[in-house]
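Example S7 (structure tokens).
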């Protein structure tokens, strides 16, 4: 059971890594930066970036009905309401919650519309026509941004996510409907092999050590790359993380 659950988690990460890599050719950089290496504290995703991405997907004929990964060994087809699905890490929730356009907060938490229709697993809210799904351990580009000059007492630019003196950059991953598929080999079956414990005079006298192993094949086919895109953004630490950091410094 444990190796089966581990295989499911690894397979999901394989798919996520493949999709993120595919999205890099259709990348939008937030703020005034032109490359990921130039991204600094002010380069946070905006409503304009999201609306522009939706327009790009529309021009690419990406349907608003989307597919999502269902956590099994295959890709599910869970239909949601009209909108584009975007996958984000938990670090971006404060950025989305604080998003303002022409003086109006544009973030709609999932609680405000969940009763009106079917929501996706992990869905946390929406902005415009984009529905955001929070992904645990979402891949980020650690330390890929500009050099950080943050000070703890700086206003507006302090306490950003930083690795090795450079800003961490977070992807907002858009995955359009009917844009990819997984390729299974040998029937796409995960094979588990168990070797029962046997006594060994030199290594395991009482025969208490056995082995359980799992093996599978995986491939990812991207056949509509124009429907897989990303927006890059930096993110500010939440108040709780800042508070913990300051308490650690005091202690």
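Recovered sequence:
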């Amino acid at each position: 059971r444990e190796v089966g659950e581990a295989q499911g988690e690894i397979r999901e990460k394989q798919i996520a890594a493949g999709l993120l890599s595919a999205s890099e050719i259709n990348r939008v950089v937030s703020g005034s930066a032109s490359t990921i290496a130039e991204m600094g504290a002010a380069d946070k995703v905006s409503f304009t970036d999201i609306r522009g991405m939706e327009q790009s997907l529309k021009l690419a004929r990406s349907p608003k009905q989307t597919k999502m990964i269902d956590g099994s060994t295959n890709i599910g087809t869970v239909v949601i309401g009209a909108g584009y699905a975007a996958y984000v890490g938990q670090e971006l929730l404060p950025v989305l919650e604080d998003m303002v356009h022409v003086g109006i907060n544009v973030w709609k938490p999932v609680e405000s519309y969940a009763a009106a229709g079917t929501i996706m697993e992990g869905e946390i809210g929406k902005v415009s026509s984009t529905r955001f799904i929070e992904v645990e351990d979402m891949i980020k580009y650690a330390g890929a941004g500009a050099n950080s000059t943050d000070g703890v007492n700086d206003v507006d630019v302090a306490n950003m996510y930083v690795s090795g003196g450079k800003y961490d950059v977070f992807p907002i991953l858009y995955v359009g409907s009917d844009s990819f598929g997984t390729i299974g080999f040998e029937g796409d079956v995960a094979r588990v092999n168990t070797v029962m414990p046997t006594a060994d005079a030199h290594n395991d006298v009482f025969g208490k050590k056995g082995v359980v192993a799992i093996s599978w094949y995986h491939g990812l086919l991207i056949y509509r790359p124009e429907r897989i895109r990303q927006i890059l953004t930096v993110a500010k630490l939440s108040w709780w993380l800042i508070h913990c950091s300051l308490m650690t410094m005091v202690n």
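Notes on this example. The chain is about 20% helix and 25% strand.
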